[in-house]
Structures are given as C-alpha cells and as structure tokens.
C-alpha cells in the first residue's frame, strides 16, 4: 500500500509548489549571519517558553505580562528585520543603529518591571526618567511597525501622536490652528501624552496588546505546532480527498483547507503564500485562469479570519471589548462563517460548471481511509480545544493544554512508528527523540516569529486608542457619523465600510478593527440601536476588506504573485468571490436572530432566507446556476435579494417567492437544454 508521501497528490504538490514560488522569493534569513540566526532562535524559543509558563503554570500581573511580552517582541523584531531592509546585510552602520534599537527594546519593557511599585506610587507625577523611557518605547514601537507591519501603520501612529499634541494647551499649539472645528481639542503636553501611552493602561500596554500577549499568542503557537507536526498537510489532503473529484475540485478544496488553516494561523496573507503555493497551481492546471485561482485563494484565506476558533484574533478582542464570553462569540460566529465560505464555494462551483471543468482523477487523490490512518491523531487536539472552551476554561489556558495535546499525540505517533516499523534499537530511539526535540524547538521558534507582526500591530493600535481616549476623538467621530448619514442605518454602515477601506490602506486587519470599533462602535450601538455584539461583528467583518478589495487587496496581491497574474485583475476576482463579506453583516443587522436566536421557526426562516439570498446573488453575478440565466432573470434577482434584507416579513416573503420562481425557471430551462439533442 502506498504511503501518504508516495501519493500522486504529493508529487503534484511538490511540482506545483516549486513552480509557484519564484527564485527571488527566498528567505530573508539567508542574509543573516549564523550567530544572529542562533540569537533569533534563542530569543524566539525564550519568548514561547515564557508565554507557556505564564499561560499554564504561573500567571503574571497585567503590567508584568504585557511589558515582558513587548520587550521580547521588539527585540525579536529588530533582530529579524534589519533597519535598511532584508535584501542586504546590515553593515557597520546598520549594526550600530540596530544595537541602539535592541537596547531600546530591552529597556522599553523591563524598565517598568524593575520599577513597577515606584511607578504606581507616583502615578501622575512622572519623573524625567519615566518620560524619557516612554519616548524611547514609543519610538521603538513605531520603528518596529515600519519594519514588520509596514510604513502605512507607522505614519498613522505618528499622525495620532501629532494630533494629540496639537492644540492651544498642547506641546504643538501652532499645529492646532490647522485643525477643523469639530476635530479641534485643547491639546496635551508631552508628559501627559507619554504618561497615557507608556505608563497607563489605555496606551501601548492597553487591551489590544493584552489580548495579543495572552490569548492570541497561545493560539498562534498552537497553529505553529500543528504545522510542524504535519497537521496542516493532513487537513489539506482530507479536503482534497473529499472534494477533489468534483468539478473544480482543487478550488473547492482550497476553500475548505484555506479557511481551516487560516482560522488557526491568524493571517490571510501568510495562508495564501503557504497553502496557495500548492492549491493555486492545481487550480490553474484544472482550467481556472491565473487571476481566478489567485482570487479564489485570497477569498478563501480571508474566510479563515472570520472562522472560529481563532478568527484572526478577532474573537478574543470582541470578547474583551464586549465582556461576552469567548465561547459564546465562537458559537454565534459559526453560521455566518459557513454562509461566507458557502458563498465562495458556490462561486467556485459556478465558474467550474460554466467552463466545463472536471475534477481530478481518482488516481491523483489519496484515499480518505489512508489519510485518516496516517493522521487521525491530529483531530484529538482540536477536540481537546473545543471541550475545554465549552467548559469555560480561560482561552489562554486552553491554548496551553491544546499545545501539550499536540505534543502528546505526536509523541505517541512517533512511539507507535518505532514499535511497528522495525527493530527497537537504541539508534532508532535516539534518532526519534532528536526529531521530536527538533520539532518542538522549531515550533516554539515559528510561533514566536508568527506573533511578531500581530503584537506590534496591537501595540501601535494601543497608541491610536490612547490618543482617541485622551482627545475625545471617539465622541466627535460619532457625531460626524450621525450627521453625515442623516440617521440612516444603511448610510451609516456604508460609511463604516468606506472608513474600513481607507484604514486598510495602512493598517492590518486586527488594528483596523480596533481603531474602527473605538471610533464608530459607540455610534452604531447608541445612536443607531444596533446590538452591541452585532456592531462589533459588523466592524470586524468589514475590517477584512483590505485583504480582497481594490485598490488595496493584500491577500489578493499575494495570490497574484503565486499565480503569476496581474495584481489588480486578481484583486477584482477576489472582491467578487468575497461578496459575502459585505452582504452577511447587513443581514446580521436587519435579522439579528441569526446571531441572538429566537423562536425556532423564525430562526429557521432567517437561515433559509440568508442561504437563498446569497445563492441567488452569486447566480445573478455569474449569470449561471443550474444553467445559464437570461438577462431579465439576473436583473430581477437583485431587487429580490435586497427585499430579503428588509426588516418587514411581507417584503421578505415577496422577495423569497420571486427568487424561488427565478431559480425554478433556471432549473427547468437547464434540464430542458440538457435533454435537447445535440
């Protein structure tokens, strides 16, 4: 019997991955001296061990945990990302400058740890050393953001600081004269601003970094262990075995596999360039255009960010902001995520049927029983994770035990292989133990590396949130939003969508959500009456659009690079496939039963209309469902879909009736066309 490594799918995987990744996309580590790589490994492993210790053995206080985490993260960032970029060695000047930043990284966190009692005792009466260390920390965070996240977020953080200092009583009174009337404020002194950002609980060490330093890190580390132990390959192979024979099989498998892995990895872009390196060439091989293949992968990977359990750190942040238990947010997010992924899956199916595609041959696909036989143990950690969450265990502690369960099942699998694959010799036992230790160390390093960008993004988001609280910008923004929308909730949601797209030009998804919810969340809930949890979910879903919406579509651009397609063409395809990202939040607002529940018949009707509306919308966009749709049916379907969102049962009934008639006509016409000779 062929092993998993001998299957034709694995041979295709190797060829596809080699073809998908250009030579220029080499690891930046190649430019690093070996001692630096050793130091990166040591710091990354140290950070992961620190996080595991505080998660499962000895929890630390708020400022101890967050400050130590930031010190580790900044130090690791300045080691991984040289000051002049990763394309060339640092050189003497680079090392001198980076030595200063490495020192700043160390002092930024550990200064507070060493002096915490004294700092608390003199709260509000900061010393010159306190302010100096705060300035150093802010500069270090902004520079780390430039290197690891991007220049856009650094600029937005710097603008926020300048805005806080502008005003008649601020450090930059002249700048305050340029502020429009509604945005004007009295201004803050440098001491007051640094006290807010560095020495308070609403700045750099506020809620966003707190979530990143606890819950998010543990789940990112959990994903790293799954990847290194082969769980990622197991789930991808399982998706291909389930859908590979269907029309457009690799694309459908990409939707399932990318969403599954993206929900754990926490990054749509990272998922595109890893999973997509395998799935995109397979889609092209089957007949999808390069731009379609890249767009499908980007839309599917974006779905991972709204799919439980991790939701790209969103579930943890929403839980902290709303004080709703994490497990409740996970549970209510399952059906909306299924709706989104089902919409992408339907688009993929329609494109495959329109172009007459077929699936992969059975000889190219592994058998489900062989996949389960080789990797069934990877299901156990997920069951442990779900069981612990259902029992209301802290998410940070859940991540700790989930990681231990991955190590345990991997160790048991290794022991079983030792027993059945040959004589039990000391050499084989030693080699197996070395592989196990290497796997653990590599997982610890990978998890810390993967957490750098999100933690730094949360630190800069803390700067922005701190400035919003200090200046009262949130209340002003809410007033502007009410005025511009004229009190119309649809117009208000359109403004949120537009704002999320603008913020997406410079902020990653997590930071965009934090900034948006601080600015527009109060208005959505208090002024427009949208329930608190739904307001947060709407903002979080809309914050994903920077992955798939032109002109900034980061995940789509990554998909275009792997597919060898034009970035803008790929982003338009991703935008089309990800339409559920915009429609489903609207459905949540006008049909809150989809989130909060209600009478059984009402909930069933709401779920049915959601599925019907998304199906009809996809069919109208593509002009195909069971067969080709005539222009009149496509045109009539759009207002009928809009009727399903109307908060009036009679109008909903009319819209549903029209759509059912249109889809029935399409099915009858398609059956007649298939029966017609020739």
Written description of the protein model:
With 678 residues, the protein is an all-alpha fold. Among the domains are: 28-199, no CATH class; 599-678. Helices cover 75% and strands 0% of the residues. The chain is built from 31 helices and no strands. It has helices at 8-20, 34-56, 62-80, 91-121, 128-148, 151-165, 173-176, 190-197, 207-228, 231-243, 249-265, 268-274, 276-286, 290-304, 314-322, 326-354, 368-375, 379-390, 395-420, 426-471, 473-485, 489-503, 509-527, 532-542, 554-563, 567-577, 580-590, 593-596, 600-622, 631-644, 649-675. The longest helix has 46 residues, at 426-471. The radius of gyration is 26 Å and the shape is globular. 51% of the residues are buried. The model is unreliable at 1-5 and 17-27 (pLDDT under 50).
The end-to-end span amounts to 44 Å
Mean pLDDT: 82
Number of beta strands: 0
Work out the helix count. Answer: 31
Which band does the percent of strand residues land in?
under 5%
Largest sheet: none
pLDDT < 50 runs, ≥5 residues: 1-5, 17-27
CA-based gyration radius: 26 Å
Helix share, percent: over 70%
What is the SS-derived class? mainly alpha
Give a quick precis of the structure.
By secondary structure, the protein is mostly helical.
Compile the SSE list and pairings.
Layout: H1 8-20, H2 34-56, H3 62-80, H4 91-121, H5 128-148, H6 151-165, H7 173-176, H8 190-197, H9 207-228, H10 231-243, H11 249-265, H12 268-274, H13 276-286, H14 290-304, H15 314-322, H16 326-354, H17 368-375, H18 379-390, H19 395-420, H20 426-471, H21 473-485, H22 489-503, H23 509-527, H24 532-542, H25 554-563, H26 567-577, H27 580-590, H28 593-596, H29 600-622, H30 631-644, H31 649-675
Helix pairs in contact: 1-13, 2-3, 2-9, 2-20, 3-4, 3-9, 3-20, 4-5, 5-6, 5-8, 5-20, 6-20, 9-15, 9-19, 9-20, 10-11, 10-17, 11-12, 11-13, 11-14, 11-16, 12-14, 12-25, 13-14, 14-16, 14-25, 14-26, 16-29, 18-19, 19-20, 20-23, 21-22, 21-23, 22-23, 23-24, 24-27, 25-26, 29-30, 29-31, 30-31
